[in-house]
Design a protein that fits this description.
The complex is a heterotrimer of chains A (488), B (488) and C (452). Chain A is 46% helix and 8% strand. With 488 residues, chain A is of the alpha/beta class. Chain A is built from 25 helices and 10 strands. In chain B, the strands form 5 sheets. In chain B, strands 12, 13, 14, 15, 16, 17, 18 and 19 form an 8-stranded antiparallel β-sheet that branches. Chain B has a 5-stranded antiparallel β-sheet with strand order 5-6-10-8-9. Chain C has 13 helices and 21 strands. By secondary structure, chain C is α+β, with helices and mostly antiparallel strands. In chain C, the strands form 5 sheets. Chain C has an 8-stranded antiparallel β-sheet with strand order 17-14-16-15-19-20-18-21. The chains are: A alpha/beta (488), B alpha+beta (488), C alpha+beta (452). Chains in contact: A-B, B-C. At the B-C interface, strand 9, helix 7, helix 8, helix 10 and helix 16 of B face strand 11, helix 7, strand 13, helix 8 and helix 9 of C.
Chain lengths: 488, 488, 452
């Protein structure tokens, strides 16, 4: 469980240490004003090796303007430079200049939620996404974390990318919620960190029933406009099978033949790639590409924001793999978020009224990572009688961030509460978002503020939650709005 | 490097403030080594993050007792190196002092801590129909404390004035470590206008720990137009015509072709293609006034050969006009690997002449200059573009940048309109002021900071020591004998 | 008949001025259009320095010598010589506020700015003016008018010079829109106590190079140095003006509260008044007057809107009320400046009236309700003890309202009974500033806060 990923084979890379970055600031470096030289060399080897270090030219793109700071959740929480994107890029720069990878440095890289709000905010176009991803795989390979932390991470990565394992857990989780099992797991060390998250998932998920096995293919309704593959995902398939079903129905209604191929598809690798576990991520990616290689799909649709952004980067992920570089790039080009594809194709299915007020939350990996903000709003606005409300500070992460909330429960809770407060302030009846992580994170925070949140009945002062697909599905199928507000 | 006084100070401050508020880890310290002007880098000996005015005063007192210099820093977005740390000093960071203590629309006042973000004041006041008028381009991240230190301006200061016109009262920690109140909530406090002296003193007279600001009524109407011209001369003539007509616009901003290109690349603001210059003119105020004057402005733009005029039809379009302008500095990173942001002021009527001269100077040196400026008040921001990788370019750019300042002084202007003198322009200050002028300014500094511990080395080109008996020349100080300082 | 040492000092000062060249050689400004006054005095300095006469007193303290330098260089030479002689110095412009502040502790040399007169440069296109400190405000406004421009500063006493307005931080109704000296002064030439000439700021509105010494000397009562030349930002003269007046009946708290509601209504509306004044004559009704400026159409519309807002009693017209822009006192009276946060204005009005009634002193209050700066006048005939008690109560109310009560001028019996300035924040720092600029405390000694 705790074996670290093997170091990937070193691809051809520039020999020796990476070039020192060119000056990044607003003035030339020609005049030697840096007094740091006086301090002499530091102990320990340089932070990064030659395999995919954070690219020095990307680091140099940062002009240190600080526009990223107010959008960064950790800067908002702690107000410290090293826990801001600008500070982290500075730490990377230090690493490239030869500073060692000490605990202090790693701590600030780890603290990054990877929400990419800074990428949106950056006027200089710094690709922080590339920087943090490369840095994380360096950290995973080159830094040894304390034993407890290693164990927790191992547990997380042994569980979440595996829908089968998640599904198996659901029974015990219900028992956990209902019984004194809570006390039992409290003694086992790791589970207290995992259990609250899983328990929240379970509380939001529809009752555990033997869900009908997903079909291999769902035919298009009416004239076929496209053949689309669809990711069923890990958390989504285990806890929110209804979202997947709704997604498939909406696609079919819009004239898509949907290829699910449930037997062969597993995790897309997003969680791994976002946490620097490159080898694992590549394995998942190759498997998924293989699974859909012969299916003749025009598009590959994803309904989970975090997965979608990773899938779109398969080309870069497998660029070093001669056998997969080409197929990965081709596959990535077909990847679409559900909302993105629906807007691209244009609606054919009739929308029926849903008299409901909706607060739409931008999942970071949809808004910031994929730039998809207008499409879901456009789709929701097209539903008659649906009133769309905006949440204050929409660029701010809710604190879910993949497994960040498991690894950093206390700050994640604070971010969740902040977001929940803004969501409740809209006074909307239904919170809609396109990522299971966000849904769970915000829903978990609402009770702490004294409200209720559930995919089941929404009480006074509370709010019901749903995925965009479920709203569209309800509208197209002419379901009563109560099904969204209390789908019991 | 053994610095026993720093070690003692570290221990003392850890005891007083707690470990988390004191940073002495090398990697973390280095993230504070520069502000928004990233080419000057000095690692501070210690970083301290006070959580209250009292803690801030305590830190200063500890510095005084240890004879250790201190530098205050807000969000670290300054463009003159004003918050550049002192290598043997303490950097006092106000980013955790971010409470908005009071918003009082009835009194048209707000009381905020120095770490509060400029835009946050407006956001807190806007529900009541008020806002905070000074709007530096970095308003989404720059702090009020930093604004006070730098007397920050912004696009709208043409009509509304600078920070100094909007600060009524301060609580400051003096360089002695005393907490003192200056000014107040009501205007015209008796005695010397020490608020006026403190605002814009760049951290050399102490640290603001609470700021009472004026709130301004949100205007009834805001009308914004974007006018494209064939040349900066034509745009300049239009500006002159508008001012001569007795119109006081809220803002008149100009960008030349190169700046337009950069902004377009960064934020796709959709400025008219092929324009030699664009003007953004904004009028605000009572609807009846604005309508009458706006028609006049439009007419004057056409009369001065505007090739295209767009009038913002809604807030979104207005925001887009401004987006290109406000992101222009950082956006230049898209068209040039390195650049210098210059900040100088000329009498507005000299604009065409000075721009021509800048063009000539640039051509002589084979350097490109993009121009962004507050045309209404003659505040130029030439962006000197260069590539550090090309031999000699950095030096030529630096030299050109200085020549532009000389030009500003020659035309009766200033070497800085809003970025401050800081570290960067201390050597240029004597080009604008005589020794006697600077001596007189130093009298004020000596009154506040007789030990020269508050942000030493900023603003003034040569360190000066304050005589023990103020105003009287005493026997030579060792530094004076060594030719390093002058006592007066 | 001057004292023997006075004669020697006269000679020394004359000699100093004579070495400083002709008039108006004010360093930088001599490059630009002078107004042809140079040479008026032949540079000899004989007429520029004279023994003091009976009219040459400040706050009742007679001067021994009067000097009127004709240029910054002459002023510098004069002050350098005065420093050498250890003379106490007070500066005088129009003399319109000579009775303000405490009388000087000592007064050897009275320096007049009357010969530092005239506009040096009016750059209309840049909306700035460079003007010598001894220029009367009214003369300056006349010089600017042909270009359709103005300095947005009122002259409530009449006859004030530019330098005097700066030194006393004078302001009037229009401060609500244009601000005060600190907002309009963008450059200053200053002669220090030791005769050193210093400049700060410049000729451009936007400028953050170096310390803003212009603000430091504004309202400093000449205790830090002599301002010889100022650069101001200007504003266009508006095309149209209208005054909207409204009378509020009722004495005491109820009336003041009604005025308060009016103020709230005006501030909350979108009228952007240039001035919002209140006038409360002793025992009379309150009158609230709004000045609107702008384009003819805009002003007409806003005047109508304001009239509707202020209620049935409101009327509008082109003329200002007779008291507009004047302090509510006569020479010899006690005059106070009362400041408050905006919401504190009604309380201050009510307290003033109540204190006047209680101590049987007719008290007139008037001022900029829209900025929280009011003035109060108590007649010279009122008993000094009663006036002192009123001042104390007003000071309490002003402090309560976040502001101050400063006695600007008062007859001698009142002066001895009250602290003119009242409590001042940051006084220790102010003393340190004074020690740096004037270590021997020779400039206007004792006139300013805390005995500075």
């Amino acid at each position: 469980m705790s074996t670290p990923d093997p170091v990937p084979p070193d691809p051809p890379s520039p020999a020796g240490t990476p070039d020192p970055p060119s000056p990044a600031g607003t003035r030339p470096a020609s005049v030697p004003r840096d007094v740091l030289g006086l301090l002499g060399p530091t102990s320990g080897g340089p932070a990064f090796d030659g395999y995919r270090p954070p690219p020095s030219d990307v680091v140099a793109d940062c002009v240190h303007c600080g526009f990223c700071l107010p959008t960064c959740p950790t800067y908002l929480l702690w107000g410290e430079e090293m826990d801001s994107p600008r500070g982290r890029i500075h730490l990377m720069r230090q690493g490239l200049e030869g500073e060692p990878l000490r605990d202090s440095m790693v701590g600030h890289f780890d603290a990054c939620l990877g929400c990419m709000a800074c990428v949106t905010a950056c006027p200089s176009g710094v690709r922080y996404d590339i920087l943090i991803e490369n840095t994380r795989q360096q950290v995973e390979r080159r830094h040894r974390r304390p034993a407890r932390e290693r164990a927790l991470r191992a547990a997380v990565f042994a569980l979440f990318p595996y829908p089968g394992r998640l599904r198996l857990l659901r029974g015990p989780l219900r028992a956990y919620q209902a019984s004194g099992l809570r006390a039992l797991v409290a003694r086992s060390g790791l589970l207290p960190r995992l259990a609250p998250t899983l328990a929240t998932l379970e509380s939001l998920a529809p009752r555990l029933t033997r869900a009908p096995k997903a079909p291999d293919r769902v035919p298009a309704y009416g004239r076929r406009r496209a053949v689309v593959g669809m990711l069923t995902g890990c958390v989504q398939s285990a806890f929110f099978p209804g979202v997947n079903a709704a997604t498939a129905r909406v696609l079919a209604a819009e004239g898509c033949e949907v290829v699910l191929n449930p037997a062969r598809q597993g995790c897309c690798g997003a969680l791994s790639v976002h946490n620097g576990r490159l080898t694992e991520a590549r394995r998942f990616a190759r498997d998924l590409i293989d699974a859909f290689a012969e299916t003749g799909i025009d598009y590959f649709v994803v309904n989970a924001a975090g997965c979608g952004s990773s899938l779109k980067e398969y080309g870069e992920l497998l660029a070093d793999d001669p056998a997969y570089a080409q197929p990965a790039a081709e596959f990535a080009a077909r990847v679409r978020d559900l909302a993105e594809l629906l807007v691209e194709l244009g609606p054919v299915a009739r929308r029926h009224p849903l008299p409901v007020s909706v607060a739409y939350h931008d999942a970071c990996h949809l808004g910031h990572a994929q730039g998809i903000r207008s499409q879901p709003r456009e789709l929701l606005r097209a539903v008659p009688k649906l009133e769309l409300r905006e949440i204050a500070d929409p660029e701010l992460c809710c604190g879910s961030a993949g497994v960040w909330n498991i690894l950093n429960p206390e700050p994640a809770a604070r971010l969740g509460e902040r977001k929940a407060r803004d969501v409740l302030a809209t006074g909307a009846q239904l919170l809609v978002t396109a990522n299971p992580g966000c849904l769970m994170q915000i829903a978990a925070a609402i009770p702490r503020l004294g409200g209720t949140a559930s995919a089941r009945p929404a009480g006074a002062g509370g709010i019901a939650v749903a995925h965009t697909a479920q709203v569209l599905d309800a509208s197209i199928r002419r379901l009563p709005v109560e099904r969204l507000l209390s789908p019991g | 490097m053994a610095r026993p006084e720093i070690e003692r100070l570290t221990g003392e401050l850890r005891d007083a403030l707690g470990d988390e508020q004191v940073i002495d880890d090398r990697a973390r310290l280095r993230t504070y080594e520069c502000d928004g002007l990233a080419q000057y880098r000095v690692m501070p000996a210690l970083v301290v993050l006070p959580r209250s005015a009292q803690e801030c005063a305590l830190v200063v007192r500890a510095c005084v007792a240890a004879r250790v210099p201190f530098v205050a820093r807000g969000s670290g977005t300054g463009l003159s190196g004003g918050a550049l740390p002192h290598a043997d000093g303490v950097l006092i960071v106000t980013s955790q002092l971010r409470a908005i203590r009071e918003v009082s629309p009835a009194d048209e006042r707000a009381v905020v801590e120095p770490g509060v973000i400029n835009l946050a004041v407006t956001r807190a006041a806007s529900p009541y129909g008020y806002y905070y008028a000074p709007d530096p381009s970095s308003q989404q991240i720059c702090s009020i404390g930093g604004n006070v230190a730098e007397n920050s301006g912004g696009a709208h200061c043409l009509k509304y004035g600078f920070t100094t016109n909007h600060v009524l009262g301060l609580q400051v920690v003096t360089p002695d470590g005393d907490l003192v109140r200056l000014g107040g909530a009501a205007p015209d406090s008796p005695g010397y206008d020490l608020v006026g002296a403190f605002v814009g003193s760049e951290g050399t007279l102490g640290i603001a720990t609470e700021v009472t600001v004026r709130l301004v009524r949100l205007p009834e109407t805001v009308r914004t137009l974007l006018a494209a011209f064939a040349s900066t001369d034509a745009a300049g003539a239009a500006t002159s015509a508008i001012i001569a007509a007795g119109v006081v616009p809220a803002a008149v901003e100009m960008m030349d072709a190169l700046a337009i290109e950069a902004a377009e690349a960064a934020v796709h603001c959709g400025y008219p293609a092929g324009a030699g210059a664009v003007l953004i003119v904004e009028l605000d105020g009572p609807a009846a006034e604005v309508e009458a004057q706006f028609a006049e402005v439009e007419r004057l733009c056409r009369a001065n050969a505007a090739v295209e005029i767009r009038v913002a039809t809604d807030d979104a379009e207005r925001a887009l006009f401004w987006k290109g302008r406000k992101s222009a500095f950082a956006a230049v990173g898209r068209i040039s690997p390195d650049y210098i942001v210059q900040d100088g002021v000329i009498p507005r009527t000299a604009l065409p002449e000075v721009l021509r001269r800048i063009g000539e100077l640039a051509a002589e040196r084979g350097i490109r200059v993009a121009n962004v400026f507050h045309a209404g008040d003659g505040n130029l921001h030439p962006l000197v573009l260069f590539d550090d990788a090309v031999d000699g370019q950095a030096e030529r750019a630096e030299e050109l940048s200085g020549a532009i300042l000389d030009l500003c002084v020659a035309y009766g202007g200033s070497i800085t309109g809003e970025h401050g003198v800081g570290m960067d322009k201390a050597r240029y200050l004597p080009r604008m002021y005589t020794d006697d002028d600077l001596d007189t300014m130093q009298l004020l500094r000596c009154a506040f900071d007789p030990r020269s511990l508050a942000n030493p080395g900023k603003i003034f080109p040569t360190p000066r020591l304050c005589g023990e008996v103020p105003g009287r020349r005493k026997g030579a100080h060792p530094l004076q004998e060594a030719g390093l300082a002058e006592v007066f | 008949m001057p004292r023997p040492d006075t004669t020697a000092q006269l000679d020394a000062l004359r000699a100093a001025i004579a070495t400083a060249g002709g008039d108006s050689e004010t360093g930088r400004s001599n490059e630009t259009g002078r107004d042809g006054r140079a040479g008026e005095d032949g540079g000899a300095g004989s007429a520029a320095v004279r023994p003091a006469g009976p009219a040459d007193a400040v706050g009742g303290v007679p001067a021994r010598i009067v000097a009127a330098p004709g240029s910054t260089a002459q002023a510098a030479a004069l002050l350098r010589a005065a420093a050498g002689l250890g003379l106490s110095v007070v500066f005088r412009g129009g003399g319109s506020r000579s009775d303000w502040g405490n009388p000087p502790r000592a007064l050897d040399l009275l320096v007049e700015t009357r010969r530092l007169r005239g506009v040096v440069e009016h750059a209309a296109g840049d909306l700035i003016v460079v003007v010598r400190a001894g220029t009367p405000l009214a003369e300056l406004q006349r010089a600017l008018a042909p270009a359709g421009q103005q300095l947005g500063l009122d002259d409530p006493v009449g006859g004030a010079t530019v330098g005097g307005a700066v030194a006393c931080n004078a302001s009037g109704p229009r401060r609500m829109l244009y601000g005060t000296v600190r907002d309009l002064l963008i450059g200053v030439t200053l002669v220090r106590a030791d005769g050193v000439v210093a400049h700060a700021g410049g000729r451009v509105v936007k400028n953050v190079a170096g310390y803003d010494l212009g603000k430091l000397v504004t309202g400093a009562y000449g205790t830090l140095g002599l301002v010889t030349e100022c650069v101001f930002r200007l504003h266009p003269v508006p095309a149209a003006r209208a005054y909207v007046r409204c009378r509020t009946a009722g004495a005491g708290t109820a009336g003041a509260e009604r005025v308060g509601r009016l103020l709230g209504t005006v501030l909350g509306a979108q009228l952007v008044p240039t001035a919002l004044e209140v006038d409360a004559p002793p025992g009379g009704d309150y009158q609230t007057v709004l000045l609107l400026e702008g384009t003819p159409a805009g002003v007409a519309g806003r005047a109508e809107a304001a009239t509707r807002l202020l209620g049935a009693d409101a009327v509008h017209g082109p003329a200002a009320p007779p008291w507009w822009g004047r302090y509510p006192w006569q020479p010899g009276d006690t005059g106070l400046k009362l400041t408050a946060v905006l919401s504190g204005v009604p309380d201050l009005l009510a307290t003033a009236r109540a204190a006047g009634d209680r101590h049987d002193v007719p008290i007139a209050v008037r001022g900029s309700a829209g900025t929280g700066v009011l003035y109060a006048g108590l007649p010279a005939a009122a008993g000094p003890d009663r006036v002192a008690r009123v001042v104390e109560e007003l000071r309490g109310a002003a402090t309560e309202a976040g502001g101050h009560a400063v006695v600007l001028t008062a007859p001698e019996p009142v002066r001895t009974r009250v602290d003119l300035w009242g409590p001042v924040e940051g006084l220790e720092l102010m003393r340190r500033v004074k020690r740096q600029f004037d270590p021997d405390a020779r400039l206007a000694p004792g006139r300013f806060v805390g005995g500075i």
